[in-house]
Amino acid sequence: MTRRSNSLRDSLNDSTYRGENTFVDKNLRLKGPLRNRKCTDVLFVILFFAFAGVMGWIGEYGMKNGETWKLTNPVDQDGKLCGHDYPDYPYAYFVI
User: Fold this and answer.
1) Of 84, 78, 83, whose CA–CA distance to 96 is shortest?
2) R_g of the chain, CA atoms, integer Å
């Protein structure tokens, strides 16, 4: 086993190597890949799309009913939103 991994490792460094000493299963060489393949993660795909749909719905609900401007406006050290909590200064900007 060690000799094989060493020869494989040596072959990776050899620019003239063309795969002469590789082992390929006889059934794979004659018949190709397996014909009786099937999807094994159907439940995961269903759960993933359900999760993505619920997250999309939550995002849409938040955009329609929430105050998303609170997420995008800067905040000063007292937690007041720039341009909203100071109505006399709509373009106020705080550098912290």
Assistant:
1) 78
2) 31
Q: What are the b/e assignments for 36-53, b being 16+ CB within 10 Å?
A: eeeeeeeeeeeeeeeeee
Higher per-residue pLDDT: 53 or 14: 53
Q: Measured between alpha carbons, how far is 20 from 75 in angstroms, rounded to an integer? A: 66
Mean pLDDT of 86-93: 72
User: pLDDT digits over 36-53, tens only?
Assistant: 777 788 999 999 999 999
* pLDDT above 80 (res 87): no
SS3 per-residue string spanning the chain: CHHHHHHHHHHHHCCCCCCCCCCCCHHHHHHCCCCCCCCCCHHHHHHHHHHHHHHHHHHHHHHHHCCCHHHHCCECCCCCECCCCCCCCCCCCCCC
